[in-house]
Amino acid sequence: MLLLIRAWFNICLLRQGPQDLPASGFLLGVSLCCYGLVSVLVSSQSYTFSMALLLTVVDLGLLVVFAWSLLYLQRKAERLNQTLSALAGTGSLMGLIALPLLLTIGPDATSEPVPASLLSLWLLLLLWNLFIMAHIIRHALSSSFAIGFGISLLYALLNMQVIVTLFSAQVV
Predict the structure, then answer these.
(1) Mean pLDDT in the chain?
(2) pTM score, whole prediction
(3) CB within 8 A of 31, min separation 6: which ones?
């Protein structure tokens, strides 16, 4: 497990790519489970547990459908296990890094202004997450970083829109 976390960490640092992970169904399952657990932890800071669980299912579904569609349309579906393992694994690490920020901000972020330093850290984390996703996508598609970044930005906007549309009224 430590080797897996190290590989995800190296992908987050842009030192490795998804092709450096084994194309294993078991690894994909572990990666998706880790992503789901971290997503529930992060989401439960703003939602009830049942809503956080539902949000996680929707988020995981979007990630899987998006990655599969992207690779299928580019005729690179054989890269799905490695790409999804990398996206889910690095997403898990980024979620764990974001968790202390969310705990510091607290659930009352809508009633009190968030300090500029915390907001800056949050935006930096969001930008780094987009860079990581762009790095993974560029390797998965054998394309440029700019194309990977554009696709990762598109995914982030799509994901945010779906989440806000489905769950904005259920915030704790």
Answers:
(1) 92
(2) 0.91
(3) 4, 84, 85, 86, 88, 89, 92
